[in-house]
Amino acid sequence: MRRLLLALSLLALPALAEEPSLSELQLLSEHPVEGMSGGNLSGLAWCQDALWAVSDRVDERLYRLVGDEGVLQAEAQSFAAPPPPDIRLPWGLRMRNWVAGTLRGGHLDFEGLSCDAAGNRYLVSEARMSVLMLPVEGEPRWLSLPSSLLRQARASGMLLHYNSMFEGIAVDPSGERLWLAAERMRRGLLALQRQRSSWRCSGSCVMLSESGETVGPAALGGKVQPLDFSALAFYQDKLFTLERQAHRICRRQLGDAAVERCWSFAAVAVDESRRYPVAYGMAEALWVDKEGAWVGVDNGRFSRTDGESRPVVWRFVAPRGGWSSRQ
């Protein structure tokens, strides 16, 4: 009987994601960012000839990051977002978003940034569950997203908890396809296609919805954390997810978001000189290109062991054989 009870208790424990041994990405350079208000870097995108960043605490600015080596200077570009659409979140979530925005800044809470080949920028608002487009010419406008998007996501168990909403966005170069990442509890990926001036889901909006937990690195205390997505990127007809708590970047299929391969950046993130006084990952932003990946760290109010208190951007070298490699 004792053995039976033990077996049943083990079955009742939450499943932990298996963490296979992954190839480590090579760090090419590290760039502290000077000039971002509050230090909250939440999104990165390479648009035409420059790397751009967005902050989740500032509603009216994008930042062009200037500098080839060492410190990147953030040059602010102001814009005025029109009133966001009313997506009718539950009253409790609306109030918590409003209070958070009032106390810390950032009522729109921009958590992701992407760019198409024409140079149009796309920002995803976590608080308002909407996407703002900053066109190369013309005024900013909110994309017309289908009402089924939120309904299907919530029916799949996503977007139910405060501070666990949309956390990443990716747009293909033509600006015809768009993907959104739900952060955690449950995490997931959603897909939309443009139809003239609006966006629609082809069949189901939900590509992936999953729960689970992962064990953080021993250097950070080895605590159990929910599986999460903190950023999303599109490159060569693949989606790339930044998985903050697992300290890795994964390549996924467009059709069903199945994982094809992952690469770790844990050796860089938990290096003794780069550690923050928290037990969770801090990587919030991702852009993937032929030469490598840009990963942005949102340090918030925390300083690293080496005293660095500014947000940081890492430049990783593409894996041997490129991002499409199976080895």
UniProtKB/TrEMBL annotation:
Record-annotated Phytase-like domain positions: 39-185
Q: Name one GO molecular function term.
A: isomerase activity
Pfam families, sorted = Phytase-like
Source organism, top-level taxon: Bacteria
Q: Enumerate the UniProt keywords alphabetically.
A: Isomerase, Signal
Keyword Isomerase among UniProt keywords: yes
What residue stretch is flagged as signal peptide? 1-17
Its recorded name reads DNA topoisomerase IV
